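#struct-queue
[09:14] JT: dropping the first one here, sequence first, then the structure tokens:
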Amino acid sequence: MLAPRRPGGDGVGSKTGAGTRRARPRLDVPLLALDAAAGLLASFALTAPQRHPLLVAGLALGIGGWHARAALRRRAVTVPAVLEEAPSLAGRTLVGWALLGAFLAALSPGPALTLGALTLGCTGQALVSCAGRAVVYARRRAQLVRQPHAALVIGDGHTVRRVTSALLRQPGCGVRPVGIVAAGPVPASEEPEAEAATGPPVLTTTEEVRRALVQNGVRHVLIAGPEAHRTHAPLLRTLTGLGHRLWCVAPDADAPGRTGPRLAGFVCAPLPPGGARRVPVRKRALDMTVSGALLLAGSPVLAVCAALIRITDGPGVLFRQERIGRGGRPFTLLKFRTLRPADAREAATRWSVADDSRVGALCRFLRRTSLDELPQLWNVFRGDMSLVGPRPERPYFVRQFSRTYEGYAERHRMPSGITGLAQVEGLRGDTSIEDRARFDNAYIDTWSLWQDVCILLRTAAVLVRPTGS
């Protein structure tokens, strides 16, 4: 096991926390250029679109950018297969060409693009994109065989040994384990002779982990087993903050509900920042439906509140503040301004202004009835937040609470919310942070759509209680 984490530190030698900004994935420039060139080639091979060259060029670049954006979301530690990407490539290309046909039909008095030309252009672009990707991917696989990715394997002893042995037996997968961090004793390999010279060492101290990361240029971390992300949560948060890519490896091929690319026969999927959970589609659908309806129905109330604040307290109706959301990513939270901070430091570090004498009667009413939170419906509609989830906090307090309260950083596994289980249990305002974190994590661990509905109904029942915010 790793040595215990020192208070205020992360155990590996770099200051991190839930609020650390992760490096954004880079666009795959070669594939972007390939897709754009394929679109231009297919488009200008036809006669009708030549009357609108800028539109055609925009289409080609748009489809290429769409492909590139999709590639960022479907990351893999190994090079993907062209046949796996072909359906999605063809689907996006078809949509792009259908839009081109519709625009040309609207701009031209006669038929600008026949069905045959549309089919030819769409098919040609898809085939050129697939063929080009096949060449690029083949070269990348050959490069990985010569220079595989160095990876750290983390998990319980038995599962780590299974994954490590499989990777060593299949060097063509493109990943080479260079170190093991296990929660228990690592059993001896079933093939000790084959692995004696190349088997990765078991790292037992923070100094050994740090040395392995630096000397081998490790950028990928494989998390083997369902409990590893909780057992090694502090280390994983540190590695995430340092920019390492975390991958969940399902130890059993028939693991229920696990789909994704395979690595040496194991299902391998990216772990979102901070161990975040995937947001269910039905939760996002509820957020968009309810927040959109409330924004429309509550627009008169929003307008009245904004007008009263403008009349009584001058310009600057909305208050914008950086908060930490899902996976430790910062976003700008919106509220009606109920106090004008003296400076940026006060806004970022003052815990509560409920008893501040500068808060006027109108603003106290807005805070007591939670009407000042209404602009956050726009945050929900945009996807920055959810209707139900842990309340987001400022970076200053996230760093402080993450060091002080065990499990606080795990609150960022799900999107932050306007309301949550902790809030309907009375944990609002100046209440125990430890209790809030416990309730928030319990909500995440037992999430269901019905639980969200129940919390929303309970929130409506206690909304006007004078508990402050």
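[09:21] JT: and here's the second one, same format:
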Amino acid sequence: MGLEFVDLFDHWAESYDQSVSGNDLEYREVFSHYDDILQAVAKLVEGNIVEFGVGTGNLTQKLVEKSCNVVGFEPSSSMREIAKNKLFQVQIEEGDFLHFKTMQTINGFVSTYAFHHLTDSEKAEAISLYRKCLIKGGKVVFADTIFESESHKLQAIKNAQQQGFLNLAKDLETEYYTTIPVLKAVFHKHDFHVLFKQLNPFVWLIDATKL
């Protein structure tokens, strides 16, 4: 359920906003067009929104600016503290993709740079859960690193190694990055219409609507 990564995010919290701004050369492509990615997610939802992996609250801020009613869940206490200081008016709780308090009516689930912390079987469990919580026409809008195929993933690892980006290569090898065909099959199984749009060399927008 991604809880094995909590310590990493506790240590990363203070420098996270610098990393996503492109200051870290190794991860610059991963976070390229970061603000545009957040905007792309926020643009697709309205109403009562549940956000997973709030981090330091950057997507949350975009949602608040367009008058969404947001409840956020973040397993890292250090990240939660930073987000709450930025957004004292927003309810931000301890939780994750599979453990959260539901609102009475949910129009959308959103997340950026976090869904890969779940295994494929956990991703399927999460999508099944979201279908039960969403209103008809409700959305799951996630932006995350995914790949067109396993061969594309292997090539990305090889490219990172050749550039000397060994931390990035290790991340791609050890975290639970999945492929578009796997996600498409799961969303279809649970009666979602889903679209995928590439936003940078690593990140794709997942736009799923409950039928």
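[09:30] RK: nice, looked through the second one.
[09:31] RK: Residues 112 and 143 are 5 Å apart (CA to CA).
[09:31] JT: good to know. The beta strands are 48-52, 69-73, 91-93, 106-112, 134-145, 192-198, 203-210.
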